[in-house]
């Protein structure tokens, strides 16, 4: 459990933490230190235990072994909303700042006690002043305005209940609640998933000046480059085979973690080098094991076993027989000892990287309906209060990137193009027979207890699942195919959704924030595969790396007109 107070440990310490679930092991002997002012970023494949480790540090999950020490109060922003959905936006913001406001009131009370010359009042005042300074108690209203505005929450009606907000709005409100509480130890799980450029810039500035330790998990490469002081990789490392062989194919079977100093870009270069060395070492060790096993078998005899000594004398025969036995024993023992040592120390086989397949040239490759014209044309299409009217044309092999601030209507536009929403103005014309596939921002909200393989077959049809099995996409490790969907990580569930979309390759592929929740390596593979997709592709994304490398057409949606409350009291809900 997290422990410590303002006067306690200055660093976040995780010592020997291991965690297993009934069907898999996710963390083994994980230790790390994050100093105050440090920003450590957890990375790793989906299912490698990033969210689990954050929950352990926050005290929400008890590990099998190990301990955690954290300075002062601990705050976690994660998938679960930390407040009641019945609360209004105003009540959530008020609740977020009440503890910090109390620190200022505590200073006043300590000052009054000092004026009355109460014993210990001077020490109490010094402590109260330090706590208020560290948490920004005298700056709380300005910081609240800054956070609410920067996270795109300023226009939300303060009387609206949290349960009535969209998923993105609720996630940003949850992040605001965590930041405004000003915990000493800050834990963040994918904090940029629903942030536009302004929101990410605000979060970056706040983290750079955070006085306590920060531990976060993120897929956002540009954000990691700007924020990380340390990168902590939870993916498997080349430890001895005997220690982890039972879970060799699991993305969550890493032993400990690997620490890289510097930015994400520096990590990528070092990670590639480490992987090459691991593959080379494993290959060389396996070749040596083969040689030693053959040597142990061959060295049971030396020379020509069926050939007698040159002299016929019995004494000479016994001499040569004894010498031969000693030489054989020595050689066999030496080879066996070397073999046993290497078998103990050999590194585990490097796990096969999950490589995205089926996107570049899928079965029944999409290409658009016959005719050669545009596959889709939208004319003055809009949705009241969600998307201002616009027009666009998507060619048969077009590539379109949709960008814009939160609330500008990117997800709404993709839903209108997919036909899952109907416009209130304009029209969308699709080519006859056009097959459209949409990957939504978030995986299914209520995951089933069916296995991933069974859920995939249910959603795409058993006949298609037999022709294009889930395993063929390389999106889930073999051992995860038959795990209940409810036990998969959010990222693994999103991989399942992607496989469902690609099972019947659409003529028009619509991807809404495709980098959300996916591992960094898979995101890179997805980006590399998109240009080769045989159909048309429309992507809506905040991801700056994806946007910088985009070579197709672009559509930037204008920022919506925001109606802001007129007073600070209304903004804070007081």
Automatic annotation (TrEMBL):
GO terms for molecular function: ATP binding; ATP hydrolysis activity. Residues 344-355 have a biased composition (Basic and acidic residues). Signal peptide: none annotated. Keywords: ATP-binding, Nucleotide-binding, Repeat. SUPFAM superfamilies: P-loop containing nucleoside triphosphate hydrolases. Residues 344-374 are annotated as: Disordered. The keyword ATP-binding applies. Residues 12-261, 354-574 form the ABC transporter domain. Pfam families: ABC_tran. It comes from the Bacteria. This is ABC transporter ATP-binding protein.
